[in-house]
Amino acid sequence: MKMMMSDYEVSLVNDSMHEFCVRFYGPAETPFAGGVWKIHVELPEQYPFKSPSIGFMNKIFHPNIDELSGSVCLDVINQTWSPMFDMINIFEVFLPQLLRYPNPNDPLNGEAAALLMRHPKEYELKVKEYVQRYATKEMADDAGAKDEDEDEEMSDIGSISEDE
């Protein structure tokens, strides 16, 4: 099921209001510009008093985002989270700020943090390379479908075929 949140396309996961995916575009004038990501958001029962968990479903190269799982550093969310925020703040303020001003001192991706601190130009090039390779609209749209296929393969013991 899809619904709109202002300018954002939102897909509910299992028709739950506590778990959904949102299409997010990289902020202009950053190396992430032009990128499209599918963001997985899960709201805890204590929401809005407790921050949501946020994850990128297609790859992104950023010090505060785990490259494999796509999880956004919880410390970073919790430092800025307020019960006064609503969901739109995540996509219009929090995520653009996170991409604009990465914090290499609290990394989930050590390689990105080290590159940002030692070789900022190389960091920017690698971010742009990831945007071109992994952050297209097609990659974002396919991000969830691929995971579902893998889950099915895991539960189907008879299937050993591999597409990739």
Number of helices: 5
Reported for the largest beta sheet, the result is: 5 strands, antiparallel
Beta-strand residue percentage: 15-25%
Could you say which overall geometry the principal axes of the C-alpha atoms support?
A: globular
As residue ranges, the low-confidence spans are 146-164
For the CA atoms, what is the radius of gyration? Answer: 16 Å
* Mean pLDDT, all residues: 83
* Total strand segments: 5
Helix content: 25-40%
Strand order of the largest sheet: 1-2-3-4-5
Distance between the termini: 29 Å
What structural category arises from helix and sheet content? Answer: alpha+beta
| Topology pattern, helix = H, strand = E | EEEEEHHHHH
Describe what this molecule looks like in 3D.
The protein is α+β, with helices and mostly antiparallel strands and 164 residues long. Helices cover 39% and strands 19% of the residues. It has 5 helices and 5 strands; from the N terminus they run E-E-E-E-E-H-H-H-H-H. The chain has helices at 74-80, 87-100, 110-118, 120-134, 137-155; strands at 2-5, 8-13, 16-25, 36-42, 53-56. It has a 5-stranded antiparallel β-sheet with strand order 1-2-3-4-5. Strand 2 and strand 3 form a beta hairpin. Helix 3 packs across helix 4. The longest helix is centred in the C-terminal third of the chain and has 19 residues, at 137-155. It is globular, with a radius of gyration of 16 Å. The two termini are 29 Å apart. 29% of the residues are buried. The model is unreliable at 146-164 (pLDDT under 50).
